[in-house]
# Entry
Amino acid sequence: MDSTEAIQELKKLISDVKPCAVTEFLGWIRSNIDDMYEEAVDKSRQNCDIMLDTIRDEIRERLPINATFPTERILTPVAGPNSDCDPTTTVHVDAFLFDDNVIDGLCDDGKMSRNYCRQCGSKEISPLTFITHSASVRQIKYMFQYLLPNLHGKAVLDVGSRTGAVLYGAYLFSDASKIVGVELDKSFCDLQKKIVEKYEFKDRIKIVHQNIMNYLQYLNRFDVIILNNVFEFFMEMKAQKQVWQSLYQNINKPGTMLITIPSVKESLQNLQTNINLSKWLKEVDMCEVCKKTNMLMYGQEDPDDKDLASIHLYEVLPRT
Ligand SMILES: C[S@@+](CC[C@H](N)C(=O)[O-])C[C@H]1O[C@@H](n2cnc3c(N)ncnc32)[C@H](O)[C@@H]1O
# Structure
């Protein structure tokens, strides 16, 4: 039976339970449902999931806990929603490497904290700001299993590929024939190359150590271009403005799909680029797909975690 039929059957079963036993029965469901849900999620895991987890564990071993390299220059945004990231109370927690379960384990071991003490020695504590520079496993699976169409024969580009998380996801969860990651930081490029070599992903994944500004002439070769908050923490606003203007000029093949976190509108908000967004891109409404995937991944249509809802899909419009 499918899930709709199962829901009907469950409702019928509940209506058949003696009134004096209903509360006890529902109480039993309530206290057992989380374990049953976790068990079902575990059972649905496939080889691709296990492989991505293995890669994740390996990269975690290779990086410091804040998952940054000394070769990087990470900036605090001066405008927009992330401009409140006070460097003293902001921690870099890579969402690909550390999911909630791993973070809980590290907090229990005293290796990580979710809070800081506002007045040393007192119980007056505040939550630290967590900033991620990677997509989470859920976001990656959402992109390639639910958001995008079949990518057989298509080319995917991840701008700023960092640990390579999105690239491995594209390899494992899609049929894309060409998957390219362009990354500014050499240490991260070396890390990605090691993983690609070790897991024999070389037939479809290529890593390019380059500023995207030096790769503009190739952008129209791709069918899908992914931009996960690439520039905000890594470039001054003036450089961000230039790079977005260059993307606007060079991503102009009609039908190219753009996946962005956050929305392009939000990224451009404080940059005064004069890009006419409505002439460049059409946003694809993925609300229903998002709700359905949330149901599968979180067991709720609208979870507190807005990981999936933060992903935007666009189609490049013909230039007039
Ligand atoms: C937020 S991370 C995105 C990571 C990855 N795409 C993901 O979703 O997991 C942004 C990455 O873009 C890189 N980057 C920033 N500006 C860049 C540029 N102009 N060209 C290439 N890479 C850039 C940074 O070094 C950083 O590793």
